[in-house]
Write a structure and sequence with these properties.
Number of helices: 16
Oligomer: single chain
Strand content: 25-35%
Radius of gyration: 21 Å
Length: 456
């Protein structure tokens, strides 16, 4: 086990990782920007290091600043959380060069799977279904036919690096394609330092299902279950659930076997999530792989009893996964996670400000992870997530009802939030019947609600 771990993140991510480190008795070091200096997790850490000013590029995204904090505190490992530098192969390499362990996959595997064009080739070679797509688009394309003929419209223009839907654009006709590619290039270059883009067939009414896996140093890869993350806005998830409902077990098992084979052949070590799209005929297609802890990992933990952060730490310390998980992983009950944001839930714009009231339910079957409290200033520098709430039930219908009850008890004042919209979405017949899809939430947001009261 490690002697001291630096948590290279902030907010909910830092709080969640720290929970496991405390339980394991491992001292941990927080890093923070000037904007986060008053947050409770900074005070509660065994040690805290200021990285820099509020803007993320001058603090949490600064490799040099985080590595300097690593040297200054004598940590022997770094946990990157999710977001920021979590999938940056150069950061992972810098941690290793500094003599510490990066709690995650190798830089080579982060690089390989972070490049969506390269990741598609790896998965296709292993027999995992992929959507028709192009390779990397060169500059100054004059004739789009060779790129479009195998794909057709509508098409998604996507950044090969990064994630979170940044730069992704849906295009209906060739007339709009050149401009869309240029916009995606610009956004990808700013966000990821890589302007490589590609085209992929767009599935308008698909579900988003992801497979949770973990591998150890000996190439053993275990499948830990599936989540459904189809409720999204701006290609970003807002509701997740486990186990993923309404799956064809035979088709699913075949895809899981192919994914496990692909990661085993790579010698993948660490936690990883393979994201798939599921069309209305039940066919799967590979979307991307995230080589880190997912925001929505809590629903998998809730139905399996596993601590995914602990598994990350232990496999990074070269423990054997079959020793850590001796029994077959089988879900019990059902879990739903909602992401509570400070945002306008019609336009999905952030709502910075001061929390004058922040009261979330403390009840059986509900777990809340948050980094804020009454009086916290919500900065415009970062993602406006306030809390993650995971609710469990005996089955999916019970979990839905319990989540609605928990959301009803939430009281947040001082900023606009998406709480009432989450209630509306979860209570919608399409969600209850598993007829929702990745564009359903945005369509619902544009539909007038019978409840005209302001969101809280």
């Amino acid at each position: 086990m490690f002697e001291r771990v630096l948590v290279a993140n902030r907010g909910v991510a830092a709080v969640r990782v720290a929970q496991t480190l405390r339980r394991l008795g491992v001292p941990w070091v927080a890093v923070y920007s000037e904007a986060d200096a008053d947050h409770a997790y900074v005070r509660e850490a065994d040690e805290a290091v200021r990285l820099g000013p509020g803007p993320a590029r001058e603090s949490y995204l600064s490799r040099d600043a985080v590595i300097a904090a690593l040297h200054a505190t004598g940590c022997d490992a770094v946990h990157p959380g999710y977001g920021f530098l979590a999938e940056d192969p150069l950061f992972a390499a810098a941690v290793i060069d500094a003599g510490a362990t990066f709690i995650g996959p190798s830089p080579a595997h982060i690089q390989a799977m972070g490049d969506k064009v390269a990741a598609r080739k790896v998965m296709a070679a292993a027999g995992v279904p992929v959507l028709p797509a192009s390779g990397a688009i060169p500059d100054d394309v004059e004739d789009w036919s060779q790129w479009l003929d195998p794909i057709g419209f509508p098409v998604l223009v996507k950044a090969s690096a990064g994630g979170g839907g940044i730069g992704m654009q849906r295009v209906e006709s060739e007339n709009d394609l050149t401009r869309a590619v240029e916009r995606t290039r610009q956004m990808a270059a700013r966000a990821f330092g890589d302007d490589t883009v590609y085209l992929e067939r767009c599935l308008d009414r698909a579900r988003h299902v992801e497979l949770q896996l973990i591998g150890d140093r000996d190439g053993h890869v275990r499948y830990l279950g599936a989540r459904d993350c189809s409720s999204q806005r701006r290609h970003q998830k807002i509701i997740e659930e486990a186990p993923a409902p309404a799956l064809d077990s035979n088709v699913h098992d075949h895809v899981v076997s192919a994914v496990v084979a692909a990661l085993s052949a790579m010698g993948y070590q660490g936690l990883g999530t393979v994201e798939m799209l599921l069309d209305d005929t039940g066919r799967y297609a590979f979307l991307e792989m995230n080589t880190r802890l997912q925001v929505e990992h809590g629903v998998t933990e809730a139905v399996t009893g596993l601590d995914l952060v602990e598994l990350q730490v232990r496999v990074a310390a070269d423990e054997d996964i079959d020793h850590l998980i001796s029994e077959p992983v089988a879900p019990r009950g059902h879990a739903i996670e909602v992401r509570i944001y400070a945002e306008d839930s019609v336009r999905f714009f952030p709502s910075p400000g001061t929390l004058t009231v922040f009261d979330l339910p403390q009840r059986a079957g509900t777990t809340v992870t948050t980094h804020v409290s009454t009086g916290t200033q919500i900065s415009s520098n970062y993602d406006p997530m306030l809390a993650l709430m995971v609710v469990t039930g005996d089955d999916r219908a019970d979990a839905i009802d319990q989540t609605l009850t928990a959301l009803e008890a939430v009281v947040i004042e001082g900023v606009a939030t998406n709480v009432r919209f989450l209630q509306r979405l979860i209570d919608d017949p399409s969600f209850r019947k598993v007829e929702h899809h990745t564009t359903f939430a945005e369509a619902l947001a544009r539909t007038p609600s019978h409840d005209s009261s302001p969101d809280t």
